[in-house]
Amino acid sequence: MTPEALRTGLVANERRQAPVPARHQHAWDPDGPPAGTIAPALWAALQGAVEEVRSEWDRIVEHAASVEEVTSHLAELGNAVRGAALGEEPDLSALPHSQLSRRILALVRSGFIERVSPPAPSPDIGQLLAVLRAIEQVAQGLEPDWAQHLSDRLSGPDGLELVVEVAHDLRSPLTSILFLAETLQRARSGPVNEVQERQLGLIYSAAFGLSSMASDVIELARGGDRLVDLDPLPFSMVDIFESVRDIVLPIAEEKGLEVRLGFPAHDFRVGHPVALSRVLLNLTTNALKFTGDGHVELTGSDLGGNQVEFSVRDTGRGIPSQNMATLFEPFRRRQREGEYAFSGSGLGLSICRKLVEAMGSALQVETRQDIGTRFYFVLTLPPAGQDLLG
User: Fold this and answer.
1) What are the CA-CA distances from residue 202 to residues 248, 253, 349 (Å)?
2) CB count, 10 Å around CB of 125?
3) Would you call 92 helix, strand, or coil by DSSP?
4) Considering the entire predicted model, what is its pTM?
5) Domains in the chain: boundaries
6) Residue 154: which residues within 8 A CB-CB, separation 6 or more?
7) Homologous superfamily of the 233-389 domain (CATH)
8) pLDDT score of 71
9) Which residues contact 7 (CB under 8 A, 6 or more apart)?
10) pLDDT of residue 150
11) What is the pLDDT of residue 257?
């Protein structure tokens, strides 16, 4: 054991043995709330959760300076929850706003839920919700300082790495969701009916979009240096178009929209298929988002000289002129709720533009109010023999 680990263990053991100050022996009224307000069983569960935190306070030792600090925080938080559960308006601004308080309240919440879960007797749902709402009300009262703490971290020297770490953490569970949804869709775990297949398609589409956004955040934070593969590869444009359609089709069907594909005359090309797929998928998903009736059309047109024009056209409401100036800016703010924006952050369209530029072109847009919008770009893609793809 290292000296540091030994020191930490000794301190933790000393704290566990410290006596609880008498003035904090009862954080809440031991007789419980007035009759008819909270059932005795629920009150006992709440008291039990508090006592567990007090008696096993070494679980939060990293956030506490002493056992007295823990019991003091418990008393203040406990009285606030009790008041909120009884319909009072506790002074949340006077609570200790700290990581310790948030940790204590989280432990009280989880301990309470454990005590009212089966096989415990079923509590009155209305009263149970009242207690849970009270805990949540107090938790929200602790949030402003936490939001400021997060803001300080994001604006600090490690802010960018924090964003990248969060995006990385998102991708792992999303990858699992994608894998499981695809496994279920293909009936590898048993038969799937038509309704379930459509629902799994929606799950897959949503998870894929979130996973792509996480990747976009990571790549944008790192300057976009790895947005495009270094070496061009042979690929099939038909395969890319059909893959995009398969991913977005559940979304289109839910909205009653048609997804149309227009293939170029020459299918097999040499280029950057991963980057191209991401651009076309982002643009097609966005087109479906802002189209209420009609269709979305994804086309590739041969222009000669190995040039191919890619286009995503919708029959949506169009982009207002005041939004055009900032359309490609990442992390922009909407002026009004519900106004046109590629996404809440504007991140997707910014990534699309960077990807297209990295492939040697420029992303263009045409739009008409109540007629629709078309995003398009031209790439130089030399032909590839089909044998190269096999």
Assistant:
1) 8, 10, 22
2) 8
3) helix
4) 0.53
5) 3-151, 157-221, 233-389
6) 162, 163
7) Histidine kinase-like ATPase, C-terminal domain (3.30.565.10)
8) 79
9) none
10) 61
11) 92
